[in-house]
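User: I'm new to structure prediction. If I give you an amino acid sequence, what do you actually give back? Let's try with this one:
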Amino acid sequence: MKKILLLAALLMGALSIQAEEKIEGSLAELKGETKIKVVEDWAGTAIAGKSLEDWLLFRQAEQPKYDAKQEWEDELKPRLLDDLPHTANEKLTKCNLFLVRDVDTRFVMTIHPVSVEKKGNCVLTCTICEAKTGRSIATIHLEGDGGKFGSMSNLWGDGFKSAGKRLGTLMTKALKK
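Assistant: Good question. You get back a string of structure tokens that encode the predicted 3D arrangement of the chain. For your 177 residues, that looks like this:
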């Protein structure tokens, strides 16, 4: 009986994870596109359950020998656009679609980290809009699993890579339909 209950709990946990990662809207308009520009939006992001301002104060108090603001700007924040698109592109090559940073494209994906934990676990919302009109065609909700060992920057990178892999997989499946 205990084994059945444990199996049921594991199944329910797996289903709840799948329910959190979803696409609202349709990616049909992306068929035939070869690239999408990605931008970041950190507005309102919770870092370890705190606003950016509060987290910077906490981080500075926690690590007084380091410059928390410099760590944020030069080490942590860049990991999003350095790691997520690259990892997503590994999956998206199957659809001949790539996420790019410095090129104007017909569609723009805004990656908004809803929350990021110290170990890099993250919840993201990616909104795809038509560049000229701003009309939203789809919103993708996903999570990333942070790392277990290393610097905070490394752990965040692991989380964004995990989210990128899931983003690429979700988009590839949706575009092959």
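You can read the tokens as a compact description of the fold. Here is one thing that stands out. Residues 152-175 form the longest helix (24 residues).
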